[in-house]
Amino acid sequence: MDVGNIAELNTFLVLDAIRARGAATRSQLGRELGLSDASISRIVKRLLASGIIDEAPGATAIRGRTPSILRFVGPVGGVIAVDLGGTLCRGALADLAGSTVAEDFRSAGEGPDAAASLLGCVAALREAAGGLGMPVRAVVVGIPALIDPVSGLATAGPNVHWQGFDLLDRLRRELAEPFEVDNDVNLAALGQAWRGAGRGVGSFVTMSLGTGVGGAVVLDGHLVRGRHNAGGEIGYLPMSRGRRASLEDVVSGRALHARAAALLAEGVESSLEAATFEVADLFAAAAGGDLLGRTVVDRLVGDVAMAVAAVAAVVDPERVILDGSIGRALEPWLPAVRDAVAAQVFAAPEVVVSDLGRDATITGAVARGLAVVSELDAPTPLSRLRKG
Fold first, then answer.
1. Dihedral sign, Cα of residue 224, residue 355, residue 110, residue 275
2. Which domain range does residue 68 map to?
3. Domain identity same for 209 and 341
4. Of 187, 183, 140, 126, nearest to 160 (Cα)?
């Protein structure tokens, strides 16, 4: 499965349905998921080949063909998923049903140190897998950067100081397992399509607002990558005509903290202490009526709405999913965001907050890992596997 083809998530929806039911026929799966007989047949063949499910004869039918029963038979291995954030590296070991069985958390670091943190996370989870008797079948890593499609180098990663860093070569030298690397928000979009707010939605945009700002655009079931693998990178969206300012310059955690600190220095009344407040404190203060908190969050609402409107005007998505620590913190202000967007565009998308918490990238990386396993086990390996 190409990660760009979100529609191929049907494989995992079928797996989820079999696991939830305990046992199911092909016709039951087709009715429940709204998939054609041909799609169900193709997906079941792949899952049977990978050993994740098996089939047995069902009860004898009075008329016609006896349907076989499909059952989930438990993990025969696992996948490692890593979300290398700007400040924290998070990893998960998942079985082949997509359930997390072990986790690892550590500081992300910068530059080569970030790569070392990533590899340390993989090593810890590989050790956990060994203790569980679970061979690691694939590793998928989400990074706050892009992989240049020509050079193969990691670039546009200011939060980890990667501008031309040969991450893939480092991973090739140190990982024995099949692996893939992708932008963290691209994987988050995959996670949203599988188990989050993008499930069943053909066209949606994920906007991740936090330490940094990123995005992913899914149109008609396909991830938009663009010429430089930079499709959806809304952090670069211009937000002013005069002084050069991008969306990341005005809505990132660093930007909000700097704006609040400047207002405190100007004497704006607030319960916040200049030396100790965190960005999360701004939202709590705003909810409590604090003048400084309301001033910062009100401007944030306007800036985010402007960005959503700009994206909506170009790609016309059905839904925009706000993610990241700042995006999720905006949930109480969603009505204001929606109203501001509706006032600016022809047809406003539904604006929602991610319901996956911090797990969207990890969820997408697990899904991609399961797809890698499925492709490796398929009778005819797919040619579009983008291995590191």
1. positive
2. 6-72
3. yes
4. 183
CA dihedral (239, 359, 198, 2) positive or negative: positive
- Stated pTM of the model: 0.88
> Helix 360-377 to helix 184-195 angle, to the nearest 10 degrees?
80
Strand partners, 350: 319
Split into its structural domains, the chain has a count of: 3
Closest CA to 76 of 377, 351, 383: 377
Q: Are residues 314 and 226 in the same domain?
A: yes
Q: pLDDT tens, 9-46?
A: 788 888 888 888 888 999 999 998 888 899 899 889 88
Strand partners, 223: 218
Q: How many CA atoms lie within 13 A of 84 on its CB side?
A: 33
160 assigned to some structural domain: yes
Listing from the earlier edge strand, what are the strands of the sheet with 53-57?
Answer: 23-24, 68-72, 53-57
Rounded Cα distance between 380 and 388, Å, is 20
Cα separation of the two ends of the chain? 15
Q: How far apart are CA 78 and CA 62, in angstroms?
A: 41
Instruction: Annotate 218-255 with b (16+ C-beta within 10 A) or e (fewer).
Output: bbebbbbbeeebbbbbbbebebeeeeeebbbbbbbbeb
Q: Dmax of the chain from CA atoms?
A: 82
Three-state secondary structure call for residue 128:
helix
CB atoms within 10 A of CB 105: 10
CB 353 within 8 A of CB 331: yes
Quick check: is 117 in a domain?
yes
CB atoms within 10 A of CB 7: 14
- On average, the pLDDT of the chain sits at 89
- Do 210 and 345 lie in one domain? The reply is yes
Residue 385 lies in a domain: no
**Are 347 and 367 in the same domain?**
no
- Which are the contacts of 114, defined by CB distance < 8 A and separation ≥ 6? 84, 89, 108, 160, 161, 162
With H, G, I as helix, E, B as strand and everything else as coil, classify residue 322: strand
Asked if residue 387 is part of any domain, the answer here is no
CA distance 366 to 80: 7
The span from the CA of 204 to the CA of 219, in Å, is: 7
Q: pLDDT tens digit string along 119-166?
A: 999 999 999 999 999 999 999 999 999 999 999 999 998 888 899 999
The H or E element spanning position 78 is strand 78-84
